[in-house]
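Hey, I'm writing a tutorial for new members on how sequence and structure tokens pair up, and I'd like a real worked example in the thread rather than a made-up one. If someone can provide the structure for the chain below, I'll link this post from the tutorial.
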Amino acid sequence: MEAAAAMASKKKSESLPSFVVPMAAVAVKELPEGEGWFYEVKFDGYRALVVKDGSWVEIQSRNQKNLTAMYPTVTSAALKLGASRVVIDGEIVALDERGRPAFQALQHRSSHAKHQIAFYVFDVLHIDGRDTTGEPIEKRRALLPKLIGENPVIRLSAELPGSAARVIDAVRSLGLEGVIAKRRGSVYQPGDRSSDWQKLKLENQQEFVIGGFRPDGTSIDALLVGYHEEKELKFAAKVRAGFTPHIRRQVRQNLEPLRTATCPFTDLPTVGPQRWGGGVTAEQMHEMFWVRPELVAQIRFVEWTSEGRLRHAAFLGMRTDKAAADVHRES
């Protein structure tokens, strides 16, 4: 591990791109079908690029944060890739004892010892001086098995056989987050949210911006979360479920430096009756602590209500790999 960290600290050469903004998928409610598409698992983890240049390795988040020190096993495994200079795209995942992704475990280093950290690779953007982003996806993916080799940490995100319906049933039965459909023959479009990649989530969850909280002593009772609509931050939910006492305290600590006197949500206080306790009335506004909308949380929920609120929302974890400005309503 120490050797890998030392190697990772060396400077990258000019032969590799400084950073490639990852290509993103469009959220859909139904997967495309036909011979022109193939499917992969949508993993519940952190999107990342692994960049290797000789003995130099860096793990980059999708918003260009350096994650190298956080995942030393991935850094060490990257040194064994079958290319001298390479940029691969994939997802960092913490696997539980059943081999299922555990999103919250990614955020706490103490949990890494209890979970296996893996990096599932689904694309290669550069290899030994060759920019592959303009090549068809089949040609790019054909490079991956030899590049990865027998590597227990860096793994291939395999193509899932069968029709869309069969793939969905199989992924749902394993309790996985969702399915990605990719158009055969498509090129890699850095920074684009392209319809060539389409994602279907089998449970409702997405990122939301934290705009405030209701305190409970030195902890929190509820998070107030929302999403950007044009230049406004819209309120989505008070989130009380999904926390342990330790996480409630930790989130409070993260939010304290961002405290502000101004409510960042443009549609609070709530006007009119609200079902499911989803709003914040004028009388309740004084109970809330407001924060600058800079942090992002992953939230699971049953559905959107007719009032535009989340029903039965639960906290899954903080997201350090996505900028708050990029958070919009997905469904």
